[in-house]
């Protein structure tokens, strides 16, 4: 970090989408890729253009209705005006309200699940901060799992044992390149997702990873309704599958392997349990329906001969099966990863270097990267005395149905009665499904508190909005599992308006509530960075024998390198010796049929992988009215909804709307032209979007990424049309199954029609009434109601 005589401040920084250098002159900041990064992400462009955007939350703000009438359920959340208040008044109001709720309703009535990616720094990590704070003042109802891979997080530990999640143990890309002849990529390898990872990427390899496979002579077969690799010039074959039908295809592959005796019986006998019951199901014994190639062809739209040839090819060549997380983000999302494991077991390749199965390739940058030999620093969160937990995507069910029973991974539980919702570093009005329903759920609590950088739809739905700094306005340490650098995140600029760090805010609140020492442990932010770095340095020395420079030197250097451990093979130790390294399943083996899941008695999951017909798919009844399958995937021009305000995201919009891609055949059938503004509609809701005609998208499929900020045309009617293009007004809030209760947000059936009305303005980035006026003219703390 340097400050020159002309007042130019230079330093290093990082984000979920990459490390970078900055140069700050007064209020203006320029960023450039970090020299460590050979292929930096274009998402960096979003940073400087968002820093002083009008959407920033500049001052503490309280919703007018809450201030005037006190806490309580209120349907005006989302459309009400705000009143800006001084920090002192805000802290007083919030501390009193927290004391009241904890005193009258108890810690279980506080929902602090607060899901979201927030920012990349390890100390100012918003979720860690809010959890540590709530633990310090009495605890909270938490959430379990993620929107990224929540179904896999429940099913994989049932099939492969505790400890197997979708972040752990992935086989190294280089081992795949060295060992595989064929990669069958269910969901493909969308490199746009490989530009990001939670905590940051310092050496992007996104396009290179699939290219390196091809260069090594590996054949890539992409199974996806949307072409991906051809667009970046990587040769591959593609099966343009009907969305949400991969399970049928995989079952038919299993059928061919079975009837042609191409499955590895010895492997199955030694390493798995429950194959025979699954095989009987595939053969059609219990239901009279053989899951053969002809059966699957009708469902997934791939010719039966192609399915049979693929099964034969997979059994004859050294095959790696990869699967994106997106496949489990749909109805019955537990089935694809379970079946992926079963197919690799049938091929006898699970646990072989570079072969077998891998989940999450094409979903995040660090999948397939080598693990680190040292642990990265993280902020301890303390312990939570409250047991209450919900599956993360059941937030609307919980708020709408206190006391209602629900199932979750074998447990029968009841939703707690939530009085206060506390969110820090997430945007549920981006990430949740059926946003109109979510809005009605957010009307129920007595108080909603949100820390935000920006006036997102979530901030608008709060009663108390706390302006949080963005990372360039504070110091931190950036690091991610499986990324080879620890980055000093220098401060570039002073905070916008009166924004404060989440840590400072929580520290002040904790002090008012008598838990200041428990929360801060007597350290300020810099003290915590020194403390976390010292812990990392000691552990690296003691456990890995690596001597790192002291904090001051690290801070001066801007980064240190992190060594990688031996390249990993998923399930390698288990394959080498299943008795010495049994899986932590009841049988110690791969559970192709799970007696545990059978014992739960669910009719929508188990006891082995199966085809469940979804409600929303092109072969179902609903398709008669809504004949296009919407794939609502991750955006290419931003991370989730973050920095939708930025240049890279804004440049992709069409007439200010999020682009929706459609095959030319479907566009012609509807008389639509490239660049038209169109309306997507179904029974859940409707939105506008800007049309891109693109034959990379399969006929009858449209693709609209998540993350355009929700912008209902009538703020008082959350069910009204979103004028901007947020697909979560169209997705249903149906869980994957009673097992994982995860999100199915990737898919919805829709119709697309021309939009011929006058184009409504985009108001998503305008601060709400009260906040906007005050941020322009009123001095800090000018509170008309004080
Ligand atoms: P982000 O846009 O990353 O989305 O959902 P998530 O809530 O993580 O939200 C992070 C928020 O944190 C932003 O509003 C940002 O301004 C704020 N923030 C950033 N830094 C700070 C900070 O330092 N302090 C505070 N207080 N706030 C900060 C992502 C989720 O969406 C995920 S992970 C997935 S995989 C899901 N994907 C889909 C999908 O495929 N399809 C649909 N339909 N829906 C999805 N939703 C899910």
Question: Can you lay out the helices and strands and say which pair or pack?
Answer:
Elements: E1 2-3, E2 8-15, E3 18-25, E4 28-33, H1 46-51, E5 61-63, H2 64-69, E6 82-84, H3 87-104, E7 110-111, H4 126-137, E8 142-144, H5 150-160, H6 173-179, E9 182-186, H7 208-215, E10 219-223, E11 237-239, H8 246-259, H9 265-271, E12 272-273, H10 275-283, H11 293-300, H12 304-316, E13 319-323, H13 335-347, E14 356-359, E15 389-391, H14 395-400, E16 405-408, E17 411-414, E18 420-424, H15 428-431, H16 435-442, E19 447-452, H17 457-460, E20 464-467, E21 476-478, E22 485-489, H18 502-512, H19 516-520, H20 525-544, H21 551-557, E23 559-561, H22 572-576, E24 590-591, H23 595-600, E25 628-631, H24 647-651, E26 659-662, H25 664-669, E27 677-681, E28 686-693, E29 701-704, E30 747-754, H26 771-777
Parallel strand pairs: 7-18, 8-15, 9-10, 9-13, 10-11, 12-24, 13-14, 18-19, 19-20, 25-29, 26-28
Antiparallel strand pairs: 1-2, 2-3, 3-4, 5-6, 5-20, 16-17, 21-22, 22-23, 25-30, 26-29, 27-28, 27-30
Helix pairs in contact: 3-18, 4-18, 5-13, 6-7, 8-11, 8-12, 8-13, 11-12
This protein binds ligand PGD.
Ligand PGD binds next to α15 and β19.
């Amino acid at each position: 970090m340097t400050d020159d005589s002309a007042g130019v401040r230079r330093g290093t920084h990082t984000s979920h989408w990459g490390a970078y250098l900055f140069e700050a002159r007064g209020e203006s900041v320029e960023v450039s890729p970090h020299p460590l990064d050979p292929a930096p992400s274009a998402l960096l462009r979003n940073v400087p253009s968002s820093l002083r955007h009008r959407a920033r939350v500049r001052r503490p703000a309280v919703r007018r209705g809450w201030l005037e009438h006190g806490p309580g359920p209120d349907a005006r959340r989302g459309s009400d005006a705000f009143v800006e208040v001084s920090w002192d008044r805000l802290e007083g109001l919030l501390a009193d309200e927290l004391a009241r709720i904890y005193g009258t309703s108890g810690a279980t009535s506080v929902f602090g699940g607060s899901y979201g990616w927030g920012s990349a720094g390890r100390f100012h990590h918003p979720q860690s901060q809010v959890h540590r704070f709530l633990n310090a003042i009495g605890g909270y109802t938490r959430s379990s799992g993620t929107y990224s891979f929540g179904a896999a997080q429940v099913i994989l530990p049932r099939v492969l044992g505790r400890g197997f999640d979708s972040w752990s143990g992935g086989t190294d890309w280089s081992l795949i390149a060295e060992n595989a002849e064929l990669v069958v990529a269910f969901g493909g390898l969308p490199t746009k997702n490989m530009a990001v990872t939670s905590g940051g990427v310092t050496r992007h390899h996104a396009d290179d990873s699939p290219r390196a496979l091809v260069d090594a002579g590996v054949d890539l077969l992409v199974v996806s309704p949307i072409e991906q690799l051809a667009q970046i010039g990587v040769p591959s074959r593609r099966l343009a599958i009907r969305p949400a039908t991969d399970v049928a295809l995989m079952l038919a592959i299993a059928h061919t392997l079975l009837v042609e005796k191409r499955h590895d019986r010895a492997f199955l006998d030694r390493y798995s349990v429950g194959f025979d019951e699954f095989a009987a199901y595939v053969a059609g014994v219990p239901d009279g329906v053989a899951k053969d190639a002809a059966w699957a062809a009708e469902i997934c739209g791939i010719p039966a001969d192609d399915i049979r040839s693929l099964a034969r090819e997979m059994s004859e060549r050294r095959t790696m099966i990869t699967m994106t997380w997106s496949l489990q983000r749909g109805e019955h999302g537990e089935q694809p990863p379970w079946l992926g494991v079963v197919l690799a077991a049938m091929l006898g390749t699970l646990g072989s270097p570079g072969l077998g199965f891998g989940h999450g390739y094409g979903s995040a940058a660090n999948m397939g990267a080598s693990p680190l030999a040292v642990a990265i620093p993280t902020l301890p969160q303390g312990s939570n005395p409250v047991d209450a937990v919900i599956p993360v995507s059941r937030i609307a069910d919980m708020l709408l149905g206190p006391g209602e029973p629900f199932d979750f991974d074998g447990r029968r539980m009841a939703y707690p009665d939530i009085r206060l919702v506390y969110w820090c570093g997430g945007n549920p009005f981006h990430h949740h499904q059926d946003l109109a329903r979510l809005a009605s759920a957010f009307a129920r609590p007595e108080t909603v508190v949100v820390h935000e950088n920006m006036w997102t739809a979530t901030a608008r739905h709060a009663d108390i909005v706390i302006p949080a700094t963005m990372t360039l306005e504070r110091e931190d340490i950036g690091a991610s599992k499986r990324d080879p650098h620890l980055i000093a995140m220098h401060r570039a600029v002073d905070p916008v308006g009166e924004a404060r760090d989440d840590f400072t805010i929580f520290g002040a609140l904790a002090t008012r509530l008598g838990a200041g020492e428990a929360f801060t442990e007597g350290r300020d932010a810099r003290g915590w960075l020194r403390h976390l770095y010292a812990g990392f340095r000691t552990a690296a020395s003691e456990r890995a024998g690596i001597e790192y420079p002291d904090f001051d030197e690290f801070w001066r250097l801007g980064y240190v390198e992190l060594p990688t451990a031996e390249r990993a093979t998923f399930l390698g130790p288990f394959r080498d010796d299943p008795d010495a390294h049994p899986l932590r399943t009841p049988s110690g083996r791969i559970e192709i049929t799970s007696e545990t899941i059978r014992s739960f008695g669910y009719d929508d999951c188990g006891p082995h992988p199966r085809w469940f017909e979804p409600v929303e798919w092109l072969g179902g009844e609903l398709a008669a009215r809504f004949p296009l399958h919407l794939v609502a995937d991750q955006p290419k021009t931003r991370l989730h909804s973050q920095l939708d305000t930025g240049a890279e995201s804004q440049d992709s919009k069409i007439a200010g709307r999020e682009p929706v891609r459609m095959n030319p055949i479907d566009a012609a059938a509807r008389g639509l032209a490239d660049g038209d503004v169109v309306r997507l509609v179904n029974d859940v809701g409707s939105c506008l979007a800007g049309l891109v005609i693109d034959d990379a998208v399969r006929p009858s499929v449209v693709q609209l990424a998540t993350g355009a900020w929700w912008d209902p045309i009538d703020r008082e009617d959350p069910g009204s049309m979103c004028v901007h293009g947020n697909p979560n007004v169209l997705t249903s809030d149906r869980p994957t199954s009673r097992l994982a209760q995860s999100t199915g947000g990737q898919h919805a059936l829709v119709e697309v029609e021309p939009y011929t009305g006058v184009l409504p303005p985009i108001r998503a980035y305008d601060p709400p009434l009260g906040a906007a006026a005050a941020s322009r003219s009123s001095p800090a703390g000018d509170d008309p109601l004080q």
